Amino acid sequence: MVIAPGAADVLTAKLVEQLGFDAGYVGGYSIASVAYGLPDTGLVSVPELVAHASAIAAAVDLPIIADLDDGACS
């Protein structure tokens, strides 16, 4: 079992890494709510979700599990 705390932004991912976890997790809900203040209703596009998840993954040396399947295509 891998414990992968949620990391909705780069700062949170850095904290997850600093605390010694083996992985982090980012999902569409966390990006929509933290980055845009929106509910997870498909209002954030897939390219926006991918850009945020990519920035989070690039900022740390941890594997990041990304669940971004709910973005609307626009």
What does this structure look like?
The chain has helices at residues 10-18, 28-36, 46-59, and strands spanning 24-27, 64-67. By secondary structure, it is an alpha+beta fold. The chain has one domain (10-67). Strands 1-2 form a two-stranded parallel sheet. The model has no long low-confidence stretch (mean pLDDT 89).
Q: What is the share of helical residues?
A: 40-55%
What share of residues are in beta strands?
5-15%
C-alpha-based Rg, rounded: 12 Å
Structural class: alpha+beta
Order of helices and strands: HEHHE
Distance between the termini: 36 Å
DSSP E strands, number: 2
Number of domains: 1
Low-confidence stretches: none
Number of helices: 3
| Shape call | elongated
The largest pleated sheet is described as: 2 strands, parallel
Strand order of the largest sheet: 1-2
**Average pLDDT score:** 89
Key features of this structure:
two-stranded parallel sheet, 74 residues, elongated, 43% helix, alpha+beta, 2 strands
Outline the fold blueprint:
Blueprint: H1 10-18, E1 24-27, H2 28-36, H3 46-59, E2 64-67
Parallel strand pairs: 1-2
How would you summarize what this structure contains?
This protein is of the alpha+beta class. 43% of the residues lie in helices and 11% in strands. The protein is built from three helices and two strands, in the order H-E-H-H-E.
